[in-house]
C-alpha cells in the first residue's frame, strides 16, 4: 500500500525524529510511503486565530499538494481534525469542493490508521517501564480516537499502562491559548502532571506533540523526571 505522509510544520521543525519513527513503523507494516517536499501547513493556526482568508490560501495549497486518492497519514490528530472538521467551513460548495471531500475521506491520524485501516494492534515494539496516556483534545473530541492508541500501547512488551485521573481533561496547550493565557495554561499542565505522577509513570504518551511539547516544557521547568513520548516513538522502540 502506497500512502502519503503529512508531517505538520512544527513536527518538521522541532520533532523530525517522530516523523521518521512513524515512517519506520509504517514500513515495518508493509506500507510504502510518499513524502511531498512541497507540503507546508494545514492552516490550523491561522484558522484558530480568526484569519480565515489566509487559512484558506494555505488550505488550497494543502489540497493541491495531496491531489490523489491515497491515504494521508499524520502524527497529529489536531491537524487531521482541522482537515476533517473545518475544511467544510472553508471549501464547501467552492471550486475545490470535490477535492476537499476526497482528502477529508483519506486523512488519518497515525494510530487510527494502524488499527482501523491496517488492522494491526501489535507492531512488535518493546519499552520497559510504566506509562500513562494523555487524551489530546483534538484526538478525543474531533477525531473520536480513544481506544486505538491504548490498544497499541497494551501490546508493547515491557510497558505497563496506567490510567490517570481526569485523563480526558485538557493539558492547557490549546495553541495560542497557552500564549494568551499563560498562567491558566501552566496551571492546567501542573494538574495534568500531578495526575500522571500519581500513577508512578515514567512516561506520558499521547498522539499529539503539541500537548507533549507543552507538558514537557512544564516538566523541564520543574525538574521532573517523567519523559514525554509520542506514540510513534514508543511503537518504534525495541526493534
Explain what you see:
By secondary structure, the protein is α/β, with parallel strands linked by helices. The chain folds into 2 domains: 2-116, no CATH class; 126-235, Rossmann fold (3-Layer(aba) Sandwich). Helices cover 51% and strands 14% of the residues. It has 13 helices and 8 strands. The strands form 2 sheets. Strands 2-1-3-4 form a 4-stranded parallel β-sheet, with helices on both faces. It is globular and about 55 Å long.
List the helices and strands and how they pair.
Blueprint: E1 2-5, H1 9-14, H2 16-28, E2 32-34, H3 44-48, H4 52-65, E3 72-74, H5 77-91, H6 97-106, E4 107-109, H7 110-116, E5 126-133, H8 137-142, H9 147-154, E6 157-161, H10 177-180, H11 182-197, E7 203-206, H12 209-221, E8 227-230, H13 231-235
Parallel strand pairs: 1-2, 1-3, 3-4, 5-6, 5-7, 7-8
Strand arrangement in the largest pleated sheet: 2-1-3-4
Biggest beta sheet attributes? 4 strands, parallel
Mean pLDDT: 95
- Give helix % range: 40-55%
**What count of domains describes the coordinates?**
2
Low-confidence stretches: none
Question: Could you provide a short overview of the structure?
Answer:
The protein is an alpha/beta fold and 239 residues long. The protein contains 13 helices and eight strands.
Throw out a few tags for this protein.
51% helix; 239 residues; alpha/beta; 4-stranded parallel β-sheet; Rossmann fold; 14% strand
Amino acid at each position: 500500500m502506497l500512502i502519503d505522509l503529512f508531517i505538520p510544520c512544527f513536527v518538521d521543525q522541532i520533532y523530525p525524529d517522530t516523523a521518521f519513527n512513524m515512517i519506520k513503523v509504517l514500513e515495518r507494516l508493509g506500507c510504502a510511503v510518499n513524502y511531498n517536499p512541497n507540503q507546508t501547513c494545514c492552516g490550523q493556526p491561522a484558522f484558530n486565530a480568526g484569519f480565515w482568508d489566509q487559512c484558506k490560501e494555505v488550505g488550497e495549497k494543502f489540497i493541491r499538494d495531496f491531489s490523489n486518492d491515497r491515504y494521508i497519514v499524520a502524527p497529529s490528530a489536531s491537524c487531521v481534525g482541522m482537515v476533517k472538521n473545518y475544511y467544510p467551513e472553508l471549501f464547501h460548495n467552492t471550486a475545490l469542493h470535490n477535492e476537499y471531500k476526497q482528502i477529508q475521506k483519506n486523512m488519518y491520524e497515525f494510530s487510527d490508521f494502524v488499527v482501523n485501516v491496517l488492522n494491526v494492534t501489535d507492531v512488535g515494539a518493546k519499552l520497559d517501564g510504566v506509562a500513562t496516556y494523555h487524551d489530546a483534545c483534538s484526538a478525543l473530541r474531533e477525531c473520536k480516537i480513544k481506544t486505538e492508541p491504548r490498544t497499541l500501547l497494551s501490546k508493547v512488551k515491557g510497558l505497563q499502562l496506567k490510567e490517570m485521573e481526569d485523563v480526558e481533561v485538557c493539558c492547557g496547550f490549546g495553541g495560542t491559548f497557552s500564549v494568551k493565557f499563560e498562567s491558566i495554561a501552566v496551571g492546567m499542565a501542573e494538574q495534568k502532571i500531578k495526575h500522571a505522577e500519581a500513577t508512578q509513570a515514567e512516561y506520558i504518551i499521547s498522539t499529539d506533540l503539541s500537548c507533549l511539547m507543552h507538558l514537557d516544557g512544564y516538566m523541564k521547568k520543574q525538574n521532573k523526571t517523567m519523559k514525554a513520548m509520542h506514540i510513534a516513538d514508543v511503537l518504534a522502540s525495541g526493534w
